[in-house]
Amino acid sequence: MVYLMGVNIKSIQKQRKYSEDFKREIVSIFESGKSSVLQLTKLYGVPKQCIYNWIYRYSTFNEPGFRVVELKSSHMDKLKELQDKVKALEQMVGQKQIQIEFLEKMIDIAKTDFNIDIKKNFSTPRSTGSVKTGKK
User: How many domains does the chain have?
Assistant: First the structure.
C-alpha cells in the first residue's frame, strides 16, 4: 500500500455515483448515433466500461447476452456512399428532364414551323406499309 504522510492513498480515492437519469441520458445519446462510446467517455469523463454496462442495462436495442459492437466509421462511410449515390442519381434525373424538355420543344417547333406532327395520336390512321418509289 502506498502511504503519504501516514494516510492510506487507496482509502481516499473518490468513487463516483451516477444518477439513473444521467445513465439513461448517456445511453440515449449513444443510441441516437450522435456520439460514440469513446466520444462520451471523453466528453463526460466516464470510463468506457461503465458506459458499456449502462448500454447493456438500459438500452432498448441491446438484449442481454449480446455484445455491443460499434461500427461508427463503417456506418458513416456507408452513409456517405449512399449520399453520393443519391446526388449522382438526382443529377442524372435533372439531365434527363432537360433532354425531355428539349425534345418537347423540338416537337412543338416541328409542328408550328414545318406542320409536321411527330407525336403519335390515336386518331392517326396506321401506315399501309412502304410503297416502292421506283428509285434504287
Answer: 2
Q: Which three cell numbers stand for residue 75?
A: 456506418
Distances (CA, A) of 75 to 35, 51, 71, 72: 13, 20, 6, 5
User: Quick one: pLDDT band at residue 106, thresholds 50, 70, 90?
Assistant: very high
Residues 76, 58, single domain; the answer is no
Strand partners, 4: 7
Q: How far apart are the C-alpha atoms of 70 and 123, rounded to whole Å?
A: 64
* Residue among 62, 68, 9 at smallest CA distance from 37: 68
Half-sphere exposure of 21 (CA within 13 A, CB side): 0
Helix axis angle, 48-58 to 37-44, nearest 10°: 120
* pTM, entire model: 0.40
> Nearest Cα to 37, choosing from 10, 76, 72, 1?
72
pLDDT of residue 75: 67
